[in-house]
Amino acid sequence: EIVLTQSPATLSLSPGERATLSCRASQRVSSYLAWYQQKPGQAPRLLIYEASNRATGIPARFSGSGSGTDFTLTISSLEPEDFAVYYCQQRNNWPITFGQGTRLEIK
Amino acid sequence: QVQLVESGGGVVQPGRSLRLSCAASGFTFSTYAMHWVRQAPGKGLEWVAVMSLDGTNKYYAESVKGRFTISRDNSKNTLYLEMNSLRAEDTAMYYCARDLSKLRFCDYWGQGTLVTVSS
Prior knowledge:
heterodimer; A: mainly beta; 11 strands; B: mainly beta; 7-stranded mixed sheet; 4-stranded antiparallel sheet
């Protein structure tokens, strides 16, 4: 099973700042990685798929990069609605696995 | 618009069974693979199972293999998860999700149904 390790566990930033979230895979996953956002009491929302493709309706301030084992989600300028938990997910190997999440909180 | 509505959750004793349903609308259900993903209270996401668009291929997480069965009825636009031999560690919110064009990422999610396994 591929283990995805997200860092940091918690990221404290202010609106307007740049956020950089990391996801490291225990084996190479090519570009088969996605990022999701989840707010309290809500279902997850797909942000990025195949490492760098924005999903439908996702603002341009969200971007993804990386391949192989190291991936990054960047939010260029934080909006108040961006404070949430973010998960990465790989689909290169069965079973599909998620990272443990990064909580992005308001500083 | 795409809608996924889960139902069937509740409180169940360990060792008993439960069947979850997910009613889909707003898209051609028979042309998409579908997933179940769960989230224990206060924890992260755990992928549970996926079924191909025609039902011929199914994959499961090791933690549920042999106990859970994913199925679908394309004539009713409905996805199911039959859960047997339930354990306390199966307690979670269960989400159904649509597969993004066979890429095995989940582009639309329901709001979930809560399963609590407790005596």
